[in-house]
Amino acid sequence: MFKSNAMQFTPTENGKRILKALGLLSAFILFVAVSAFLLNNVVATPVSPREAQIRGWVGVLQEQALTKERQSAQQKLEAAGEEAVPALLTALHSNNAALRGNAAEMLGYIASPRATDALVQNLQNDAVVAVRVNAAHALGSIQSASAIPALAASSVLDTSSQVRDASAAALQNTYARIAQSANKNSADVQAITVAPGQTNVVYLATKRDLLVSRNGGAQWDTLTQTLPSLVSTLDVNPTNPDILYAGLHSQGMYLSTDGGKTWQTLTRNFSNQAIGSSTVTAITVDPANPLRVVMAHGIRFGDSNATFMPLGILSSKDGGKSWQNVMDLYEGQLVTRLQVRDGKVYALTNDKVLIAPLPN
User: In order of start, what are the domains of the chain with their CATH numbers?
Assistant: First the structure.
């Protein structure tokens, strides 16, 4: 006789197996119910004819070449204006690079502030140069103060000169719009900066006055004659918008910890030159370490301090109390913008980006 190899289960084990089976069955039933609900919900909220029409036009933007069909679709999307923005924002996430680039271009034509955040993401993260260029152009048309930190970063950090140039042009357009919102002539504005952590906070320096907006440039307060001298550059602490660094045309560098109301000099901490000749042309604060401040400086000399000689780029680990040399600068290497990323300094000069490691 053969003995059976079938496993024998106790009543307790059988009960557990039954409960497990019931649990799996319940989960399956729940899955089916949720799927049915979602399907019914989709069916219950059909796309309107107008939405379908706009989506159809957006779909034509997948064409790389400017065909008559695509040109017609672009004209219709531009005429649709704000109605077309949701579909165009969705297109910015497409796997089709031509669609992303053309959608960014259309958002620039429409110039909707609602598109700012999405365009900033494409500018910073899209792998395709043409898409980043179009995102920068679109931000230059929208001219939102909240895009300034991203545009400033891309104008220095992007590996493509096309994107850097497009970002720089977009910055200038945005600065002009902000100056206009403050009722100032662009020629009278020395510097504009936005708090990276709170992009609604905007500072504008004009002569010795400092204008402050805390709603993205819609309204302004003026701190009359608060600046120590003519400003060449401004930058804001990324975690505290009341901490402000000012590079001056001929008096070095100053710090404010109360939103620009009062100032203290940092010049003697880094320069042995006469105060009247020390000039700071660019400042940045490390977004990963708000005590890390980097600046480019030089001296002015000659009649009316008209001649400028770059000296170098310095880094501080304690908010400006002490400084270390990052790199020397030479005649013609005027640094106009700085960024810090991954332990390196990126300095924009007239014709190239200089890169150097931060000191330990």
Answer: 70-175 (1.25.10.10), 191-357 (2.130.10.10)
360/346 Cα distance (integer angstroms): 16
203, exposed or middle or buried, with CB in 10 Å at 0-12, 13-18, 19+? buried
Dihedral, CA atoms, 87, 164, 335, 294, nearest 10 degrees? 50
DSSP per-residue string spanning 31-95 = HHHHHHHHHHHHHHSPPPHHHHHHHHHHHHTT-SS--HHHHHHHHHHHHHGGGGHHHHHHHTT-S
Residues 6+ apart with CB under 8 A from 156: 164, 337, 338, 339, 346, 347, 348, 353
Full-model pTM: 0.84
Q: What is the rounded CA–CA span in Å between residue 355 and residue 65?
A: 38
- Residue 298, strand partner residues: 279, 310
Residues 99-144 have pLDDT tens digits of: 999 999 999 999 999 999 999 999 999 999 999 999 999 999 999 9
